[in-house]
Amino acid sequence: MHVLTVKQAKEKLKQAMDDVCRDHEPTIIVRKRGKPVVLLSLRDYNGLQETMYLLGSTTNTQRLKRSVAQLRSSPPYSSDI
User: Fold this and answer.
1) DSSP-assigned states of every residue in 17-50
2) Which H or E run contains 62?
3) 75 near 69, Cβ under 8 Å?
4) What would you report as the CA-atom Rg of the chain, rounded to the nearest whole angstrom?
5) Which among 26, 24, 18 is positioned nearest to 1, based on CA atoms?
6) Facing residues of 28 across strands?
7) What is the pTM of this model?
8) pLDDT band at residue 75 using 50, 70 and 90 as cut-offs
9) Strand, coil or helix: what is 57?
10) Rama region for 71: left / alpha / beta (φ>0; ψ in -120 to 50; rest)
């Protein structure tokens, strides 16, 4: 994960955004008088939102776990996950 100060983020904003989108690795922006913030690509943000939605239900979480276990136990996928 990359870490930038506010000054660095201002100076290198385009590069920071390009890096986040290309590498799918968030960047933390630290501030002197405030809590840090995270720069995240929209694609990654949407993925996190979808994951939180899918895991938000106990029933759905259990279904997903069973599906992953089933997939892992059936060749040829066992080494891919």
Assistant:
1) HHHHHHH---EEEEETTEEEEEE--HHHHHHHHH
2) helix 58-73
3) no
4) 18
5) 26
6) 3, 38
7) 0.72
8) confident
9) coil
10) alpha
Give the tokens for residue 44: 């990654």
pLDDT digits 0-9 by tens, 21-55? 999 999 999 999 999 999 999 999 999 999 999 89
Sign of CA dihedral 52, 54, 56, 62: negative
Q: Find residue 25's DSSP bridge partners.
A: none
Run of H or E residues at 2? strand 2-5
According to DSSP, residue 12 is labeled: T
End-to-end CA distance of the chain: 24
Rounded to 10°, the helix 58-73/42-54 angle is 100
Which residues, other chains included, contact 55 with Cβ-Cβ below 8 Å and sequence gap of 6+?
61, 64
